[in-house]
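Researcher: Going back to the complex we discussed earlier. I've cleaned up the inputs and rechecked each line, so this should be the final set. Can you rerun the prediction on the complete assembly and write out the structure?
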Amino acid sequence: MDAQQNISTGEKVQELEAEVERLRKENENLSLLFGVIHSNYNSLKSQLQLRQIQERGGLFACTESCSSQESNKRAKIEFPKEKTSQVLFRTDSTDTSLVVKDGYQWRKYGQKITKDNPSPRAYFRCFMSPRCPVKKKVQRCLLDRSLLVATYEGEHNHEPDARHVSPSLTNGLVMASTTSSYSPTVNPFAPNITLDLTLSGTNQEMKEPSQRFVEDSKNRIEDYVTSLRRIQTSLRP
DNA sequence: CGTCTTTGACCCGCGC
DNA sequence: GCGCGGGTCAAAGACG
Ligand SMILES: [Zn+2]
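Model: Rerun complete. Updated structure for the full complex:
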């Protein structure tokens, strides 16, 4: 009976290990896919910028001596000069009042309900340094209520005070990417992608929804890729 | 009593 | 011009 139990538990362990391995591979594939998407997005963006610059040729020399025929609202298009990055945090599914201690001191200055997301969005300003222009918005993820999406904008002009970073934060961090900045060179943030799809489930019932979530995000990513491809081909001369 | 959050008012850009 | 939606202000209140 002990032997039988051992066999069955051994089988179970093997099964679970296989499952974990499968999920790991899936994770790896998704990371790869995300990298491809990211690079595609970057090249597409640079193409778009190039095309916009070509469209209004020699904008720099023209800003003063702009003739009246160019007085349309053409020069409206501008690139976001400030870096904005999105970071996903994991938190308790119950509320932590949407505040995350991430090494900076934030003061909340607003909270609004948005149209497309039932959970409210909170607005914070960094006030560690008197002239720090950094702001961040925090909102719960639409699909997974236990994730917080923090959108940082601007750059700190001081050092982060890392003394009060909670250790649960470092392993709760899921992904840090999606920096958008106007720099013609390759941005150094690209290769650092750690996509982790919350396989923290302990029950077997957890398997199904997470699998569905994986498939769902896969479908989303594929849709995204096809739309990107379409845009790219339509942009190509 | 000082500090930080809450929360409705307010503002501003945009589409109709 | 008007309404709507997102972002910010500031009075009021909670909290130590
Ligand atoms: Zn700061």
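Model: Worth noting: The CA atoms of residues 49 and 79 of chain A lie 9 Å apart.
Researcher: Good, that matches what I expected from the previous run.
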